[in-house]
């Protein structure tokens, strides 16, 4: 039996359509007609020798075989693009100074920096993890070339900043419900005329001030009339995750980079206020970056957008 050789161009159409949720949009993005993309998908099913899609309402849904092939398609396309970048930038030299917040350290840093280092071995990368205000200050002082950070809208964006995504702020607590001390949300009926429900202050886990996110959360609780108390504060995000996992209280963050030992909490169940979205921003030190910084910026943008498009926790909110 002849070995099947999957067409990378077809796999790219397949992967792009799934990521965008529409093969019409994929066709537009890839500069092809919808009929051409449709023909590619039929070719892909023929090559795979199995059904990759099932009809659901007016749309399509991947079968188990389709999900399996999609995972391989991502790997094959990533390797192809990495090889292409390596050939284009084989002589790329210099240094890139990258700053990012703690949320992205485990989620993005290993994959992006590993891919960059393999493609551009002559480029030296200097990375630092810090809070958003510190990263912006380092950019202004010329100590960083790029920074990936949250923007809560408390300051105007620099002229070379690019909004990458808008993400929801969510209430977060321990993975195991029995770790939560339920006393603070247990409502007690007060006896007598004018009786009303009351509850213990919400134990709040937040980063040390100054922190724009902290101010957003406190303002939302105060507007909603929800009493709160500071249960735990730290300059370290990993310390906040540990405190939330232990059930010391609730914290607030986006779905990006949530560790396995915490989970999002349904705010409606606990009568907690809705929270706004915040922006994820890629800051550049200058309008026209040097080639190494420009290439790393492209990889960061690609990795973030793919993570947001494919991670179910973002779609759920």
From TrEMBL:
Protein name: LysR family transcriptional regulator
SUPFAM superfamilies for the chain: Periplasmic binding protein-like II, Winged helix' DNA-binding domain
Originating organism: Variovorax paradoxus
Domain HTH lysR-type positions: 6-63
MF GO annotations: DNA binding; DNA-binding transcription factor activity
PROSITE patterns the UniProt entry points to: HTH_LYSR
Domain of life: Bacteria
Statement: the UniProt record of this protein carries the keyword ATP-binding: no
Keywords of the record: DNA-binding, Transcription, Transcription regulation
The family this protein is said to belong to: Belongs to the LysR transcriptional regulatory family.
């Amino acid at each position: 039996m002849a070995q099947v050789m999957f067409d990378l161009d077809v796999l790219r159409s397949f992967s792009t359509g799934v990521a965008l949720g529409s093969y019409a949009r994929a066709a537009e993005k890839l500069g092809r007609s919808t009929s051409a993309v449709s023909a590619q998908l039929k070719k892909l099913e023929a090559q795979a020798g199995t059904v990759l899609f099932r009809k659901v309402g007016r749309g399509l849904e991947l079968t188990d075989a389709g999900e399996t092939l999609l995972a391989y398609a991502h790997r094959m396309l990533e390797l192809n693009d990495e090889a292409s970048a390596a050939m284009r930038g084989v002589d790329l030299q210099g240094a890139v100074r990258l700053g990012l917040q703690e949320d992205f350290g485990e989620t993005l840093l290993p994959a992006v920096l590993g891919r960059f280092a393999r493609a551009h071995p002559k480029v030296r990368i200097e990375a630092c993890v810090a809070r958003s205000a510190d990263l912006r200050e380092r950019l202004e002082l010329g100590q960083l070339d790029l920074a990936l950070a949250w923007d809560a809208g408390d300051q105007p964006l620099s002229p070379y900043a690019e909004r990458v995504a808008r993400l929801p702020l969510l209430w977060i607590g321990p993975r195991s419900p029995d770790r939560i001390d339920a006393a603070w949300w247990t409502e007690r009926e007060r006896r007598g005329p004018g009786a009303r429900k009351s509850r213990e202050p919400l134990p709040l886990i937040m980063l040390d001030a100054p922190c724009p996110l902290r101010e957003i959360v406190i303002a939302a609780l105060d507007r909603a009339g929800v009493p709160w108390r500071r249960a735990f504060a730290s300059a370290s995000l990993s310390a906040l995750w540990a405190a939330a996992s232990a059930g010391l209280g609730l914290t607030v963050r986006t779905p990006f980079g949530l560790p396995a030992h915490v989970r999002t909490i349904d705010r409606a169940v606990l009568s907690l206020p809705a929270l706004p979205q915040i922006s994820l921003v890629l800051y550049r030190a200058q309008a026209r970056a040097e080639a190494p910084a420009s290439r790393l910026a492209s990889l960061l943008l690609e990795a973030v957008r793919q993570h947001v498009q494919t991670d179910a926790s973002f779609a759920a909110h």
